Amino acid sequence: MTNKSFSSWYKSGSPWVWLNAGAVSISLVMVVGLLLLIAVRGLSHFWPADVMALSYQEPGGEAITLIGEAIDTEEVSALRLKSTGVDLPEGQASAQRHLLKVGNRDYFGLDFRWVNGPWMGEISYPTDIVAIERREWGNFYGYLTQVKQQHEVVADGDNAWQELQTRLIRSNDLVAQAKKIEKKDIGEINHGLEQLRLEQRRLQLAGVPEGAIQYQEIEQERKQWDVRYSDLQQKLFDLNTALNRDQIMVRMSDGREVEIPLAKIVEVIKPNAMSVWDKLGFYGHAVWKFVSGEPREANTEGGIFPAIFGTVMMVMIMAVLVTPFGVIAAVYLKEYATQGPIIRLIRIAVNNLAGVPSIVYGVFGLGFFVYFIGGNIDDLFFSAKLPAPTFGTPGLMWASLTLAILTVPVVIVATEEGLSRIPRAIREGSLALGATKAETLWRTVLPMAAPAMMTGLILAVARAAGEVAPLMMVGVVKLAPALAVDTIAPYLHLDRQFMHLGFHIYDVGFQSPNVEAARPLVYATALLLVLIIIVLNLAAISIRNRLRENFKASES
To answer: How much is the CA Rg of the chain, to the nearest whole Å?
Structure first.
């Protein structure tokens, strides 16, 4: 290429086009690669991996047998191994070491153990090894030897496995019944008793004398609740008695046999004996349990449904709050306000608000929404509950309002841009036909600007769904005992605290006492959060495209 042709090519702007295209391509590759990494690391956790049995003996130590899942392998230098008290054979500069998930934390102290390759013996995969998912203490690995009823052997040998499956179905069904009574039925009773207590307190604040008929009615209703509570307590006692009926005996890798009550077991599988199709079926079942279940073991076991529900509910409430507020502000600034220094100053302030650190909004929400507005609401409407706060404490409403304030600049700017793109001739034509300014705005301008409003909402949802810092101050908790929606009036409880996927990732990743067990859950939860944001955005984009098609003729 000659200097002249190069100069002409350079002045044409083609280099910048190729530079931008390359930057976009690299960004897309990085995003896709990140999502694939998260997906592989997270989704592989639910696959029922084979469980190995191996002999292991370090120099100067006793020969032991280990049972566990192979989690990771790394190459380490002799110097690094020496710092842990392990010396490699003479002349060997490095060696592989393997991370095994050995489970049985209540007996071995740790779920995971590193073993050094040079001292690993024969590895086998016995088909009779069982992997037990427990409600507490994580997984258990061993060999099933007996099934017991009331501590008396009812099956052993080859018959023990089938007997265990039958009794485990019964046990899990009893656990579900007990949980329903504890959470739903007893929860309704507790709510009813609390309402009676508040009614009695209101009568006392109103100066109604003791012995009035209102107090007698309250006492009679309380006795009815007490009778119902006694019946449920008896049912729970019977269920717990039935739950404690069955046990199993399992032999660990060190030869010890331990007894495990079936009431503490969620699932039992023989991974080494499962076919590919069996593993695929179990994989789908495990993923569904993760999505639909409740967390256990400091959020390192179980599911994350409360966090999914809390995230979606908060984003939906935030969207309902931020959209009208942002649209009204944009309409005033664009259509009604006299353009001048003050309006320019307001626009600068709106743009600057988008760059304020989110934690500042959290401090604002805590001080203004929770303490000021919530405290005054309690004084006016919930005085009978004081000093226990109702709205004067972090909750779903205040978290949604805080995020609405955080994202409203995005909606304002996007809506203003949409209003600016509507030709002036359309406004003048509507006015010329006799419509008022308000009618023109409501029936012509706003419908045509609806796609821009949806764009602002999409950006607001994308930002709000991933925020964590402000939510830690205005409503998000590690574990919420109840969802914000239930069967008790008023059904939607905006005063309740809630779980959030973003905070769940932070808690599991950085506050977990069992880091190795929590790591795959961090990836799985992060993937789920990204998918939820994508689904919410796709829904909003679909609505925006439909609105754009409806008013395409008008815009042209």
So the answer is: 31
